[in-house]
Design goal:
The structure holds 2 protein chains of 2 kinds. Chain A is of the alpha/beta class. Chain A is built from 12 helices and 11 strands. Chain A has 2 domains: about 140 residues, Thiolase/Chalcone synthase (Peroxisomal Thiolase, Chain A, domain 1, 3-Layer(aba) Sandwich), CATH 3.40.47; about 220 residues, Peroxisomal Thiolase, Chain A, domain 1. In chain A, the strands form 2 sheets. Chain A has a 9-stranded mixed β-sheet with strand order 3-2-4-7-1-8-11-10-9, with helices on both faces. In chain A, strand 5 and strand 6 form a beta hairpin. The longest helix of chain A has 16 residues. The radius of gyration of chain A is 19 Å and the shape is globular. In chain B, strand 5 and strand 6 form a beta hairpin. The termini of chain B are far apart. The chains are: A alpha/beta, B mainly beta.
Chain lengths: ~375, ~140
């Protein structure tokens, strides 16, 4: 049963805040829901599906948020696989709508990481330190950045990938942020600036790492038929894929990541080819995340990522534009930024991106990574189109 | 004296021992490193667990490791706010590929950051951090 063009993203909203000590988490989320519904031309009374995660420690924060909004939806999904969760939620919402479980589903995210001074990547304790697998890692000082750094180190060793090539990803992303009024860091940087920034976990520098901000966002998903009658041009969901990778009982090839499988599934299900993709939103927790993801999605061969990201190819006006909002590296990263990938892709497909608009953008790919590539992580891929 | 005791207190996170993993941690206390092999299908695995991920058999064989391996990848950490580690930076975290064919996360010790290399031969050293917990770390092979 193909889901292609059966459902659409009908409304999107990225909360403009990057630092909100004056707002509660639920307030940021609810303002995001209101924004996305306004964008779609719907009201809260139309919503009968809800997806979210990342609230509190109980694992059932979605019920608390329904309480806050006085919602009693027919469909809820709180899949929690890290930053990619909201990309997976979008696919789950599409499947639920197609199966008749709900009609209008909101995917929402919010976080006050910056104003609550949460050291996302270098706090030393990744989530779930009580799981059996964590016992063999926590004594050795794992950090999120460290787990990604080990992927970068191995990639450099095997393929001669350079710090300059990784830096180019950060430089391009900052260029895009300079054209996004809401981005947290907008002053252009150079490759030299990245290399001169301090090493956080070798070989990754400070400017190879995502920023920490507050933020929130929401999406409205509904049937393609209904979306065509709404305020904005529908952004159709063509295909999706998701999976996880981990240590594989100690026998993993660490440069093969979840994107290889989730990407293959999304392309097969969407019925499109790599050459059809006009722009991509690639989760950029770190520069190496982007390089490894592009290789694993099949946009270049394994080992060729360094050359692929060079020469301005990834710029909004380049051969293969990515992360035109300024990404997690420069615009916003409240901890799990998957939702912003879908929002920017939808805006590009609607032609709403002003100076950073990708020309003739018809098909976009979104890939979210959750967790850490060097240990356990998830990948969720979506392919979207305005046609 | 009180100050000295305070300084010696081990503040890094400790693993939670349970009945599934206790034999592995007890072997480390004896300064022995083991991995598991399925007694039915022969698949080797790390970390230790009660059943084989290949055939789901509960028949476990414990294989004593040589303690030798090579660095698969590593990172030198310069920023970690967690207690115990913020006092230890820079430290080297690595995946070591054991001769027996599995990769384990560990620390490289007795090794300067500029000395660490992928492919470098390493050997296990046992660090008794509390009366109940010994950690397997690795140093450049001598």
């Amino acid at each position: 049963m193909s889901l292609t063009r059966k459902t659409a993203v009908a409304g999107v909203f990225e909360h403009p805040t990057r630092f909100a000590p004056d707002k509660s988490l639920f307030q940021i989320m609810a303002e995001s829901v209101r924004g996305a519904l306004d964008d779609a031309g719907l009201t809260i009374k139309d919503v009968n599906g809800l997806c979210t995660t990342g609230i509190g420690m109980s694992g059932m924060g979605i019920v608390g948020f329904c309480d806050y909004l006085n919602l009693t939806p027919n469909f809820v999904d709180s899949t929690s696989i890290g930053g990619s969760s909201f990309v997976a939620h979008t696919a789950h919402a599409a499947a639920a709508i197609h199966a008749g479980l709900c009609d209008v589903c909101v995917v929402v995210y919010g976080s006050t990481a910056a104003s609550s001074r949460f050291a996302i990547g270098t706090g030393g304790e990744r989530g779930g330190a009580g799981d059996p697998c964590d016992q063999y890692e926590i004594p050795f000082g794992p950090t999120t950045v460290g787990a990604y750094a080990m992927i970068a180190q191995r990639h450099m060793h095997d393929y001669g990938t350079t710090a300059e090539q990784l830096a180019e990803i950060a430089v391009t992303t900052r260029l895009h942020a300079s054209m996004n009024p809401a981005a947290k860091y907008r002053d252009p940087i150079t490759v030299e600036d990245v290399l001169a920034s301090r090493i956080i976990s070798s070989p990754l520098h400070l400017l190879d790492c995502c920023i920490i901000s507050d933020g929130g966002g929401a999406l409205v998903i509904t049937s393609a038929q209904r979306a065509r009658d709404l305020k904005k041009k529908p952004v159709y969901i063509l295909g999706a894929g998701e999976t996880v990778r981990h240590a594989a009982r100690g026998q993993r090839d660490f440069l093969e990541i979840a994107a290889a499988q989730s990407g293959r599934l999304a392309f097969e299900r969407a019925g499109v080819a790599h050459k059809d993709i006009d722009m991509a939103m690639i989760y950029d927790s770190f520069t190496i995340t982007v390089l490894a993801t592009l290789e694993n999605l099949g946009f270049c061969k394994r080992g060729e990522g360094g050359a692929f990201v060079s020469g301005g190819r990834l710029r909004f006006d380049g051969e293969f534009p990515i992360n035109t909002d300024g990404g997690g590296l420069s615009s916003n990263h409240p901890g799990m930024r998957g939702i912003f990938l879908v929002i920017e892709a939808a805006k590009q497909l609607r032609g709403e991106c002003g100076p950073r608009q990708v020309k003739d953008c018809k098909i976009a790919l979104v890939h979210g990574t959750g967790g850490a590539l060097g240990t356990r992580h998830s990948g969720a891929t979506l392919i979207l189109s305005n046609q | 004296m009180a100050e000295q005791t305070q300084a010696k207190k081990y503040s890094k996170p400790l693993p939670h021992l349970d009945e599934e993993n206790r034999p592995w941690w007890e072997a480390l206390q004896r300064h022995e490193l083991y991995i598991q092999k399925c007694a039915e299908c022969g698949d080797v695995r790390y970390y230790p667990r009660a059943l084989c991920t290949n055939c789901m058999s509960s028949q476990v064989q414990w294989i004593k490791c040589s303690g030798r391996g090579k660095v698969y990848t590593f990172t030198t950490t310069y920023q970690n706010q967690a207690p115990g580690f913020r006092e230890s930076i820079p430290y080297i975290m690595a995946y070591v590929e054991l001769e027996e064919g599995v990769k384990m996360l560990t620390n490289l010790v007795d090794c300067q950051p500029e000395q660490a290399k992928i492919g470098m031969p390493v050997e296990v050293v046992y660090e008794d951090v509390t009366p109940a917990v010994t950690l397997a770390k690795f140093r450049p092979a001598r």
